[in-house]
Amino acid sequence: MSQTKAQLIDAVDGSIVDADIVGLTSSKLSGALPAISGASLTNIDGGKILKVHQVTTSGGQDITSSSMTDITGLSITFQPAATSKCLVHAVVTGYAEFSSTFHGFNKMQIVRDSTTLGTALRNIRLQTHSSVDFLQIGAPLTYTVLDTHGANGSTNVTYKCQGSTNSGHMYVNSSFSTNSSLTVYEVAPN
Description:
elongated
């Protein structure tokens, strides 16, 4: 028995009753969807990556100072948009070497202009009753921070990495063909 269009529609709410649809082919379901305007979307973050700035270095450096020292090749200067933020990610490879010490550490920090944004630490502590010629530890120093830079859109900012040691050496990269990098993702506001 064939049903009329009126019989296929539920009288209560005006919806089509699935069980009553007979002989519906996929060709009747195809077609273009209407365009969706971004203005009609709600509760969705609108942030996006505007630019990516990156430097890498394979050059070796031996830092022996307890004061923060610029790491050669890990500096980026650019002009960010006034309302953007910067996601800054640093990876400094290499190793630490300490002579006749029982507690040594290396520090790496990310700096914007003259403001320290964060610090990573690599340390070693050895308890022993005998003398030690030297201690070595190899591990990358990494740090990631989301920075509200405060620039007005017409001034430059500089992000860089610095390193220090309490005693001994902070070797950057070293002779193992490693690379260190500094990456800045400029992010648009929501």
